[in-house]
Amino acid sequence: MLEARNKKHKMTMISYVTLLLSVALISTHSFVITVKQSPPFAAKTSNRPRSHSQTHPKPKHVSSPQTQATTARRLSSSDDTTPQTQTGRVLLISGSAPSGYGATSPQPNPSWDTVAQQLARRLRNFAGVLKDGSDVIQSDSIGVETLRESPDWLAVNGYDVVLVLGVCGEEEEWLTTALANASTNASPNSIKALLTDPSCSPSLQSQQFAGSYFPGDPTQEYVINLSPWTEIASAKRLLSKTSTLLSRKSSEDYLFALLFALHGLVLPLDVVKSDINPSWEKGLGNIAEFKKMCDKCLPQIKAAMNDPQTKAAIDLLNA
Q: What is the model's pTM?
């Protein structure tokens, strides 16, 4: 019985190594297919030159800046040997739908505006600062009512990632009009990902995109199924990951959804670059990581795989 079990685990390990080798070899191919498509809200791009205010918009009702003490803490905690030169810009747009946050909190169900301001403040702390003292991640929050009177596309232009929280009903029209105007007037459009939380209207959720991937395009789905190592397939996996995180109603999960989007589409971020799971994005790195893990922890891995309780816990984590 024990001999049969050991034989089964050996076969599992061999199959896993074979899978990693296949992923690594395929991902090293230079063949890349990219299907480009305009965002679902995009109109024909204008060639009109942009002014400085259009390139660097100042959103209305932005969240409060970090205090000097917080900035000093981020400076002192940064130990990167390579100076950071890239920046990422995130905009959180809040609507009027119930947030569903803080079910066990003394003040449950805060407004999305409160949630957006908190997330914008916290997000800046995950990537340190530049040499001039400005944040690597520049995050702002606005209420969707900002766009109500006259759709102000300048309020949404210039950001890399836009996260929409609780926008539904007539608010959706204000937002989509502003996004369409930004796509028309900005050349090129800066938005690389549009994310929505589950409290947004279904039609708004269907407009989500990440990089070059737009859900619902049969041509793109065909390309992804045919070549899962391509950029567009990676963008689909990124959007799926952020959607999973945004479904959990947790501040930490929302923050990491934004961090993953920035890391995958805008700039490298140390806080999310480590991932123990094999992936197409890692290529040969899958093999190096698996070898290092086996060299250092093989007895512990075997013990865990042979212990029913531990294996059950691992299966729950991967579910």
A: 0.67
